[in-house]
Amino acid sequence: MEFLELQRYMHGVEGILSYIQYSIPHREETLSKKECIQLDNQIAIIKSGCLIEKTFLNNTVDVVVAGDFLFGVVYGEGEEKNLIYEAHVETELLLFDTETVCAYLEDKKLLSNFLFYVCEKLHGKLNYLVMISRLNSEERTWEIFNKLVSEDGWLPVWLNKKLTSELSRSSIRTTNVILNRFAEQKIIDITGRPWQVKSQNFNY
User: Fold this and answer.
1) What are the residues whose beta carbons fall under 8 Å from the beta carbon of 188, sequence distance 6 or more?
2) Over the stretch 62-82, which tens digit does the pLDDT of each residue have?
3) Residue 44's beta-bridge partner residues?
4) Closest CA to 202 of 132, 159, 140, 128
5) E strand or H helix at 53
6) For residues 86 and 154, is the Cβ–Cβ distance under 8 A?
7) What is the pLDDT of residue 87?
8) pLDDT per residue as tens digits for the range 127-149
């Protein structure tokens, strides 16, 4: 690849992903709603849709949306070693073999760039999950909205009360109370779908 063409794909924070997608063989997979996948020595880029990240015991960890990147990380042994990803809606993935990606990038002298990117992503995710664990239900719900809201204030159309309760580690009843309180304070509009964040005036 010519230098200028490489620079085109390496420009910006997510440039390394564009370069991988352009340069390295991969396969596309579409998951139907509720279909699950585990990443065994694989790297995934979410092309469209959204995945719910769960533990082997079916505890919800996080949500993964279009444009996000997943790196298969081993957390334990045997069947419990990997996280499970469940499609919340129909979801398209680009799947790469980890060894193929690393070998290719090492040959191009880009492996250190990629590993730095992976470490940044994992560190950011860990910080987010630790932060969430220290908040109360109302604060956790607000942080979920902060994470998913678009620049113009809209939340994803697939976000509903059940998923909000799972991501915020709250009961459906508690989530309903929080959403109604936010609506009364005109922080969000939940009269239709998708929901809309109307104000950033939420203080812990």
Assistant:
1) 145, 155, 179, 182, 195, 196, 197, 198
2) 899 888 889 875 555 555 556
3) 70, 95
4) 140
5) strand 50-54
6) no
7) 95
8) 988 998 899 999 999 999 999 99
Distances (CA, A) of 87 to 10, 60, 90, 148, 188: 30, 12, 6, 17, 26
For residue 202, the model assigns a pLDDT of 61
- Return the DSSP state at 93: E
Which domains are assigned to the chain?
A: 3-132 (2.60.120.10), 136-197 (1.10.10.10)
Q: pTM for this structure?
A: 0.80
